[in-house]
Design a protein that fits this description.
154 residues, mainly alpha, 5 helices, elongated
Length: 154
């Protein structure tokens, strides 16, 4: 009985400590990721290189079973910059690049889908016309034999 009670206590302690350690690494990873992003941008680097460096660091430090998505990493950086506004006051102007205009992206995706659909429709029409042309040619060739078309047969 005592043994079972000890196992329960160990599991309970492990259950309480594990989320705390995971949360701490997440906060530290996002904080340093934000520091990387903001320092690089402030140093004159472009958005892509700064973002890649910060995202790679956050992915590497986060660990765990699941990878950090780019959206989640951008949210972590934004969260950290806003939470620690005094420390990252120079970085607020760069946050808009982390979250591009979603409406514009949706519109571009819809336009791309529309173009693909139009191209597919054109291809289907072309195939249909080609098939009709082939059928018409077959009918004509059946109707006129070589004897009918022989120009020396008077």
């Amino acid at each position: 009985m005592q043994r079972l009670k000890n196992k329960k206590l160990i599991l309970l302690a492990f259950g309480i400590c594990t989320p705390l350690t995971l949360t701490t690494s997440k906060v530290n990873a996002s904080s340093f990721g934000a520091e990387i992003f903001c320092s690089m941008r402030d140093g004159g680097n472009d958005h892509e290189s700064s973002w890649e460096a910060a995202y790679t660091y956050i992915k590497k430090q986060k660990g765990g079973l699941f990878k950090v998505s780019p959206k989640n990493a951008a949210a972590l950086i934004t969260e950290t910059v806003i939470r620690e506004r005094e420390k990252f006051s120079y970085c607020v102007e760069y946050l808009d690049n982390l979250h591009p205009n979603r409406k514009l992206i949706r519109d571009l995706e819809k336009e791309e889908e529309r173009k693909e659909k139009e191209a597919k429709d054109r291809e289907n029409k072309r195939k249909k016309l080609q098939q009709e042309l082939d059928e018409t040619n077959d009918e004509i060739s059946e109707e006129y034999t070589d004897e009918t078309l022989d120009r020396y047969s008077y």
